[in-house]
Specification:
By secondary structure, the protein is an alpha/beta fold. Helix content is 31%, strand content 28%. It is built from eight helices and twelve strands. The strands form three sheets. It has a six-stranded mixed beta sheet, sandwiched between helices. It has a four-stranded antiparallel beta sheet with strand order 2-1-4-5, covered by helices on one side. The chain has a two-stranded antiparallel sheet with strand order 11-12.
Amino acid sequence: MTPALQASALQVQLGARPVLSEVNVSVAAGRWTCIVGPNGAGKSTLLKALAGLLPMQGEVRLLGQPLGAATPRERAQRLAWMGQDEVVSDDLSVWEIAMLGRAPHQGWWGAVTVEDEQIVRSCLETLQVWDLRHRNLHSLSNGERQRVLLARLLAVQAEVMLMDEPLTNLDPPHQVDWLRQVRALVCQGRTVVSVLHEIGMALHADDVLVMRAGRVVHHGPCAEAATRDAIEAVFDHRIRIDELDGRWVSLPREEAG
């Protein structure tokens, strides 16, 4: 099967500082891959590079084709992006923001179809913000705002979805809802790549990509012991990963003595 995303000899420099160094990675299609690592590891930079949002050296391929070969419209239809602290007009309503996810599929004049309306309604209902559809973004809590942006991402119905810290500001029940939604997307054959600081949630992913100092130090299934060992190692063994009730959980490592 063609990988959803491939990066070859990827290098990114921000100002005079190298952030990514010779990264080679292949993201399997139809799976959830989670990127983890300590602060400053280059996780968000890698995700932005895979989305084509940064100047870089090397090559990124989306569903087998060079990322730069697709038109902006084609890329937006096949790859959806949700970043941290996205700038969105606070004067737009929840409905209008979610409808932005349909823009890549609309014609030159941006005419909204019945299908667009049905898709947006379904996404708002899924994220439990349908009742907020007439409110402006500035009137929402941070958690509600995050769920609206997630609804916009889902509305694209892209084959590949990239999410940078999607759990920010979400309370535990809505984090669990997000986890269920990701699983539903994967069951539909879509590919999800996320950056998470919440290691406990990341351990639910199919594959984990572990980073440190701008490099990928491990990439493998969460079910493999080597993956869990790599996660513990990049956090200097200050955490330990144990199995609890059939699930992998992250716990603070007890100091000796």
